[in-house]
Amino acid sequence: MNVHLIRSSELSVETFANVLNLLKSFRGPIEYHSGESEATLNELLTRTWETEKDFQRKMPFPQFSISEKRSFFSFPREENYQNWQYFFEKCYEAREDWFIPSTDHVFLLTDLANERNWFGAMGPSGRDYFIHTADWGHYFGSQVDIRFPIAYEISMWIVRHLMFSDTENYVQHVHQDTRGCGNDFCRNKKDIILKMRTADLCSDCMEIVEKRKISPLLLSQLFDTMDGIRNNLSFRERGKVIQQPSKLELRGYQQRIFFTDFGDLELRLNPKEKTIYLFYLRHPEGVPLVLLQDYRDEIGMLYRRYTNQSEPSEIAQSIDRMLDPRDNDINVILSRIKKKLKNTVGESLLPYYQIEGEHGGAKRITLDREFVKWVE
After folding, report:
1. pLDDT tens for residues 43-72?
2. Which of 80, 172, 211, 320 has an alpha carbon 20 to 30 Å from 361's alpha carbon atom?
3. Which run of H or E residues covers position 351?
4. Residue ranges of the chain whose pLDDT lies below 70
5. How many degrees, rounded to 5, is the angle at CA 44 between CA 38 and CA 49?
6. Which CATH class is domain 2-242?
7. What residue ranges do the domains of the chain occupy?
8. Helix 147-163 vs helix 13-24: crossing angle, to nearest 10
9. pLDDT of 123-160, one tens digit each?
10. What is the spatial distance between Cα 350 and Cα 213, in angstroms, rounded to a whole number?
11. Is residue 112 packed enough to be buried (19+ CB in 10 Å), middle (13-18) or exposed (0-12)?
């Protein structure tokens, strides 16, 4: 089975890449592919939610043919949205532009809200979908790693495709009551939390799965994905209490940085940021900023590995800026690293990973190096 993910223009490249990497980390017959370009959404409609209660309530399934914690926001809240058919048409356009076979699945990932206020939906073909990628902080808290609920929604819609012959068949079997099943309707959208914490189907839905004689390999990959999402959500929640950091793994010649206990979440740093961060990972004893020049050869070796620059003079100039105590470049680099780390692991676990130290003293990363693995 081939699944193509399409990024709409307002969704960040980083979020899109992290969702794709998460899904690819679970092996099986489903192959996930990145769309070749972004989809631009325009001609937007506008609406206003007067209260939080209105905002978090899903509207019922439309009565027409498909072929046709604390509040995260303040209210009233105005937002742009579009109708379902608009999103499905974007999937159709992607198929035509990139010659995607009709048997493949296409998911449009978009921050833009939809007319029914759903997390996602399946089109009349049964192989075209959209997933709403925004507002997850309202349900899970501001520190949520949004790639988990997005990946869950993608996996669950594939499960529904396998379970039901068409959209009408799915609607007939959706649970209006919340029971912790992947097919709960979740009219109150905050009930999505229960679905993701169980990452399972109820006995009635399991009976449908058995009758449909779905490939065990397909089901295994999908349930492994949902189990992994559940485990990682739990790990992050426990981490706030027990303060247990994730392991770091540095992979390949470019030494890409992954948090293995966060579902292989990648920390994406630019060449300067990666150079300084990995330098400090290599020096648990700590190094004051004013002494970085004493490590010029090592820092230069790292930067030449990661940079896309080819001219020796440009590379030397970039290294000079990083190491010049009269230049503010190093402080900008440290600030950006800290921001990216905070967005990745959350504020509660940030102290393990950030480069910190007293003003004028040695800077270091406090993470126990037993949590760091270098894989060539």
Report:
1. 666 767 667 666 666 666 554 333 334 445
2. 320
3. helix 350-353
4. 36-45, 47, 49-50, 52-75, 141-144, 234-243, 263
5. 120
6. alpha beta
7. 2-242, 248-375
8. 50
9. 988 899 999 998 887 777 666 678 888 999 999 999 99
10. 46
11. buried
